[in-house]
Design brief:
Elements: H1 2-7, H2 28-44, H3 52-70, H4 74-77, H5 80-99, H6 107-125
Helix pairs in contact: 2-3, 2-5, 2-6, 3-5, 5-6
């Protein structure tokens, strides 16, 4: 699988398909904004949404990849946007780990996440 990951970003002429919106670009500001947008979408999903399971699975995979890739980078892991994003990822990830991919985020947790999302956006806007 590791060898596949390296070639995933280089589209072959025969299979030049759109890169997944859940795939890391290995550029922190870009990835953090994308991660945040995908988390917002997952947070707002309501029960009965036909795409819920796919969106949640993709977002969870992206959250794991994001944390695994960036927490080892001291320049990034020390940034306020990263630590707040890391906290939000743990909150959302924990929710799905406990309740499964089909159970929507409850109102109280949604509120706390919305607050964290605002903080992350502010920090990213300041480049921190």
């Amino acid at each position: 699988p590791a060898a596949l990951a390296l070639t995933a970003n280089t589209p072959s002429p025969a299979l030049a398909k759109e890169p997944s919106p859940y795939q890391l670009k290995k550029d922190y500001p870009t990835d953090a904004k994308t991660m945040l947008e995908n988390m917002k979408v997952a947070t707002e999903l309501s029960r009965g949404n036909p795409d819920m399971e796919n969106i949640v699975k993709s977002t969870r995979t992206e959250m794991n990849d994001f944390v695994a890739f960036y927490r080892r980078q001291p320049k990034v892991s020390g940034m306020p946007s990263f630590s707040t994003l890391y906290t939000a990822i743990n909150t959302l990830s924990g929710h799905y780990a406990s309740y499964g991919n089909k159970y929507p985020v409850p109102a109280k947790r949604k509120e706390r996440l919305a607050q964290q999302y605002k903080e992350i956006e502010r920090a990213l806007a300041r480049g921190k």
